[in-house]
Write a structure and sequence with these properties.
Elements (H helix, E strand, L loop, with lengths): L1 H10 L6 E5 L11 E5 L2 E5 L5 E7 L2 E11 L5 H10 L10 E10 L4 E5 L8 E2 L5 E2 L4 H6 L5 H8 L1 H4 L18 E2 L4 E4 L4 E4 L11 H21 L3 E5 L5 H11 L4 E5 L7 H14 L3 E3 L7 H9 L9 H8 L5 E5 L3 H4 L11 H9 L9 H17 L12 H23 L4 E4 L4 H8 L10 H11 L6
Parallel strand pairs: 13-14, 13-16, 14-15, 16-17
Antiparallel strand pairs: 1-3, 1-9, 2-3, 4-5, 5-6, 6-7, 7-11, 8-9, 8-10, 11-12
Helix pairs in contact: 1-9, 6-7, 6-15, 7-16, 9-10, 9-14, 12-13
Length: about 475
């Protein structure tokens, strides 16, 4: 039994992953991976990676990796047709939810976009090579980790991050390999990034308008789960974000299962809340046993490219959910909707660098580490073209939390790690949803946890606790 699971864990290295190279680039593909060849480009992908290829007109091809669904009445195909009708207008992508990467190849251009949150991580280097996991640059191209980055990871500033470990800016452990930041695309021919959102002032809306958009989004997510025959699994906690996703599924009569990890370490109040939630919703629920960190945790660490931590929950996922249709709906993205973040007051890389180190209060940090973080955010501002976002109605702290923290940690680390056990999709992942939240004209604090509770009460009163 142990040897069978060890083999399975190795099979899940870079699960749901892919690489893309110019057809002139030499690479060593991973055994068992499948290929797609388009003039000028070669794609390799894990056998479990969901992939669709659209070629609606001569010379134009879209390669879509992962889960994408429309949050409107328009089909995904129709959305891609609109994108292809004007490749310089990326607004059609605003209505796509899910976790995906999209390659757009025409005779004139070759670009890769990813989902709104950056939940499907994409990493690039200037020669046009792209991969879903940073460590694929080591496995397939023989790159070695950068000495300066490794030194930083041994320092107190990085180690002090505890549960939310991720590198500053858009860095990876490999020099010259960067994360694709949300709202930017990477040009495979030019080896550069370009920002495509926001390009105009965000439209004003109301709190009622945001609630309506939440309803539309969750209905679309539920339809995606049903339409693909997915078996939904969610974490039962005392928090509000995942509970609202549960409410959306319940409203659509979509069955799901729940689990709670670290039960003995939870406070009595949270255990009581979870027990009430499970009873009120009549939810199938498992309290996870204490699990040793074994083969799947090691795979999860590889999938996060050795940057993030990894939960023993992955071991349980892998052992209990052999069905490949199982999907973990993680509550990430809800934090982007809330307006309870510490204001920055300016689009300033030094402020973003300070925010990265803020979790380390009381920890002595070397000047070298401080300088490293500030240099990382200088590079981030350049490659993510942050200055272009200013003046459109997005607060700098909102953009920091979305484009840096959630993309680098939630997508590049957490989701990639959990994939080793179960396919993972973020609960709130839509640019249209985020933009609607940013446009709310109401008093500060209106987009709070209370908002999530109000929405839960409307969709599934039984679990409004």
């Amino acid at each position: 039994m142990h040897h069978r699971f060890t083999h399975l864990a190795q099979y899940r290295n870079f699960r749901y992953g892919f690489i893309s190279t110019p057809d002139t680039t030499s690479t060593t593909p991973i055994a068992g991976w499948r290929s797609i060849r388009i003039p000028g480009h070669i794609f390799w992908h894990h056998p479990e990676t969901r992939v669709e290829v659209f070629a609606p007109r001569t010379g134009a091809t879209v390669v879509l990796f992962g889960d994408a669904f429309s949050t409107t009445d328009e089909s995904v195909q129709a959305t891609l047709d609109r994108l292809l009708s004007d490749v310089d207008d990326a607004r059609p992508l605003d209505t796509l939810g899910g976790r995906w990467a999209l390659f757009l190849i025409t005779p004139e251009t070759a670009r890769v976009y990813n989902d709104a949150m950056g939940g499907r991580s994409v990493y690039w280097r200037a020669d046009g090579t792209v991969a879903s996991h940073a460590a694929l640059f080591e496995d397939c191209f023989g790159m070695t980790t950068d000495a300066d980055i490794e030194r930083f990871m041994r320092g107190t500033l990085y180690k002090g991050r505890k549960q939310t470990k991720y590198l500053p800016g858009d860095l990876t452990r490999f020099a010259g390999v960067y994360a694709l930041i949300p709202n930017n695309y990477f040009d495979l021919h030019q080896g550069t990034t370009s920002r495509y959102w926001p390009i105009r002032p965000i439209a004003r809306t109301s709190l009622d308008g945001l609630h309506a958009e939440i309803d539309r989004y969750l209905s679309a997510l539920a339809a995606h789960i049903v339409g693909n025959g997915y078996r939904a699994v969610l974490g039962a906690t005392g928090g509000a974000d995942t509970r609202l996703v549960m409410a959306g599924l319940m409203r659509a009569s979509v069955p799901f299962e729940t689990f709670t990890s670290g039960w003995d370490s939870l406070k009595d109040a949270e255990r009581t809340t979870i027990a009430k939630l499970v009873a009120a919703g009549a939810l199938p629920h498992t309290i996870l046993p204490d699990l040793a960190r074994g083969d799947f945790v090691r795979t999860a660490l590889l999938n996060s490219s050795g940057v993030g931590g990894s939960s023993a929950t992955v071991e349980w996922f892998a052992r209990e959910f052999h069905d490949p249709s199982a999907v973990f709906l993680i509550g990430h993205g809800g934090e982007i909707l809330r307006d309870d973040k510490t204001p920055f007051h300016a689009f300033d890389p030094d402020l973003w660098a300070s925010a990265y180190g803020r979790v380390n209060t009381g920890v002595e940090v070397s000047r070298e580490d401080t300088a490293f973080v500030h240099a990382a955010f200088d590079g981030f501002f350049e490659r993510a073209h942050v200055a272009q976002a200013e003046g459109h109605g997005v607060a700098p702290e909102e953009l920091y939390y979305w484009e840096h923290r959630m993309a680098m940690w939630g997508g590049g680390n957490v989701a990639n790690a959990f994939d080793a056990g179960m396919n993972t999709i973020q609960g709130y992942n839509s640019r249209r949803l985020y933009e609607t939240a940013f446009g709310v004209q109401a008093r500060s604090g209106s987009r709070s946890r209370r908002m999530f509770r109000d929405a839960t009460a409307r969709l599934a009163p039984a679990i409004d606790l």
